[in-house]
């Protein structure tokens, strides 16, 4: 599975300290390769965000959407 960052996500990630950036990138790579390993930290969203998911990484929440073989 591929990962595609929205421009706003790239900017927000760049604002974080290096350790947080590395941790988030590692979790995203695990998610893309085998999301089952992170299933305890993934929750489907409701309401206007229905169809998207939340991945918890420390104090951060990553909101993403799956389309075909791409994570947005």
Strand arrangement across the biggest beta sheet = 1-5-4-3-2
Strand percentage: 25-35%
Kindly identify the CATH topology: YaeB-like fold
Q: What is the N-to-C succession of helices and strands? A: EHHEEEE
Instruction: Give the averaged pLDDT, no decimals.
Output: 92
Q: How many H/I helices?
A: 2
What general outline do the C-alpha atoms trace?
globular
What Rg do the Cα atoms give?
Answer: 12 Å
Helix content: 25-40%
> What is the CATH class?
Alpha Beta
CATH superfamily, please?
A: RelE-like
Question: How many distinct domains?
Answer: 1
Q: Characterize the main sheet.
A: 5 strands, mixed
From the helix content, strand content and strand pairing, which structural class follows? Answer: alpha+beta
**CATH architectural label:** 2-Layer Sandwich
The stretches of 5 or more residues where confidence is low (pLDDT under 50) are none
For the termini, the CA-CA separation is 11 Å
For the secondary structure, the number of strands is 5
Q: Summarize this, please?
A:
With 72 residues, the protein is an alpha+beta fold. Helix content is 36%, strand content 29%.
Structure write-up:
With 72 residues, the protein is of the alpha+beta class. It has one domain (2-71): RelE-like (YaeB-like fold, 2-Layer Sandwich), CATH 3.30.2310.20. Helix content is 36%, strand content 29%. The protein is built from two helices and five strands. The protein has a five-stranded mixed β-sheet, with helices on one face. Strand 3 and strand 4 (60-67) form a beta hairpin. The chain starts with a strand and ends with a strand.
């Amino acid at each position: 599975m591929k990962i595609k960052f929205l421009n706003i996500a790239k900017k927000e990630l760049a604002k974080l300290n290096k350790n947080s950036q590395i941790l988030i990138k590692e979790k995203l790579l695990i998610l893309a390769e085998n999301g089952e390993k992170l299933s305890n930290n993934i929750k489907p969203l409701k309401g206007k965000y229905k169809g998207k998911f939340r991945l918890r990484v420390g104090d951060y929440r990553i909101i993403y959407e799956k389309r075909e073989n791409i994570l947005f």
